[in-house]
Fold:
Amino acid sequence: MRFENKVVYQIYPKSFQDSNGDGWGDINGIRSRIDYLAGLGVDYLWLTPFFPSPQRDNGYDVADYRAVDPRFGTMADLEALIAEAEARGIGLMFDMVFNHTSTAHEWFQKALQGDAKYMDYYIFRDGTPDAPPTNWQSKFGGPAWEYVPALGKWYLHLFDVTQADLNWENPAVREELKDILRFWKAKGVKGFRFDVVNLISKGEFVDDKEGDGRRFYTDGPHVHEYLKELVHDSGIEGMVTVGEMSSTTIANCIRYTNPHEHELSMTFSFHHLKVDYKDGDKWSLMAPDIHALKEIFASWQEGMARGGGWNAVFWCNHDQPRAVSRFGSDTTYWKESAEMLAVAIHFMRGTPYIYQGEELGMTNPHFTKIEQYRDVESLNYYKILREQDKTEAETLDIIAQRSRDDSRTPMQWDASENAGFTTGTPWIGIADNYKAINAAAQMDAPDSIRSFYKTLVALRKKMPVISAGKIEFLYPDNADLLAYRRYDGETELLVLCNLREREIAKPLPVGWTDAEKLLGNYPDTADTLRPYECVVLKK
Ligand code: TEU
Structure:
């Protein structure tokens, strides 16, 4: 099995461990924690970008794809990390941002000088200063086009203005990107994450009368063709690859991941992480719609299984608030809800991703001032929300619950100053609960959240029914309980998760009354499911 029984741990290097006191996490910091990671039993480490970058979007604005930004260390440090991880049976997964480059990249700089070859590396359109080519909106707010007076042209940026979209229709661009993959494969990298890779094929450049333009570039006309070509020609088919798919569909994700398509190993989809977006708007708050959450899990799990596709399963990453604060309780039932959320996805069909600190139950930092934020998206939306006449208090409440910085505060290693992350001044504030929530407090505690995650990772390797078994969701109309069973010829598991902060009934299908309890987050067993209680039964 290449990845079906594997677990990936995501590291945001800037916030993981600082080794030289500059307040930034770095590669040697990761090296110093390699045994902590190996101790979890994970198989791959996904590192978000550490390439040279102006850091407008924390490294997702890449200025050189084949080097290490000096603030993260040297190529020698990186090669040492690759070797030290491999010695522990862990592969490195690098993050390839191929939809766009930083405008500081030499390709774009040459384009700005009017070099026709490099202008065709990007999406430039003729125009006048007052008429952008389309009405598309950037995902970070504002228009998705920027005018360059010296050229008399606009360029497309679906994200920040300093992130210019690449022109994938240009074969020379595709060749450049294949070469980058070969470069890292030769260095011993074992996997790749492809950033917003379902946006690379743009369709018609026309105004969107119904939305922000995403329907003209999402899962675009040539995306599958481009992925097949990229994977085949760069020789990475045997590696583990995951595509981040923005606003995608089950049908497309089956095509992206069914092995007969020779595209990717698996995909991230985000529909389950929009059930608290009021009217689909990230910046309008509402309590998570648990019924919708269950429906999305069931349709994606059962749909991808039917189509031979493969999901990445996750709650957290560097763009999402901390799950325990968002879907659980970071106060009264902090431990129970963190463990229940873990069980909810780790027994599903797919490859689980653990985001740094999730295994400790790290929470949102609950910042109270805009000066505490660093993320370009959050800072943009602070302005947008204030312009929409939201009060300062309303705006800060929304940002505190939705900001990507919620997951980017430094890893909480111990109760010492700065949570053991740095001896300098951290680039961003640290959650003030670090004295209670940290790795040192959990490392040797058998009933800690970290120990619970270790057990989940080990079970995935020990029990083939988890990685290879079939899945069936139960009690679809019950808006409090997530229930599913996993089964193969040998073993059957029943997973019950109370998604609510209150006691609920515990329905048991016929034949499960005397089943063995494999795992749970309460020390005993009751006839009901207590707040955020999870139970896994085995037959
Ligand atoms: O994220 C894609 C993306 O769309 C998310 O940023 C998400 O849509 C947004 O946060 C919703 O509010 C990837 C990277 O994970 C992200 O960190 C980058 O900022 C983005 O692409 C651009 O490269």
Remarks:
- The first strand starts at residue 8 and ends at 11.
- Residues 254 and 307 are 6 Å apart (CA to CA).
- Residues 57, 60, 97, 139, 159, 195-196, 244, 246, 282, 318-319, 377, 404 surround 1-O-alpha-D-glucopyranosyl-D-fructose (CB under 6 Å).
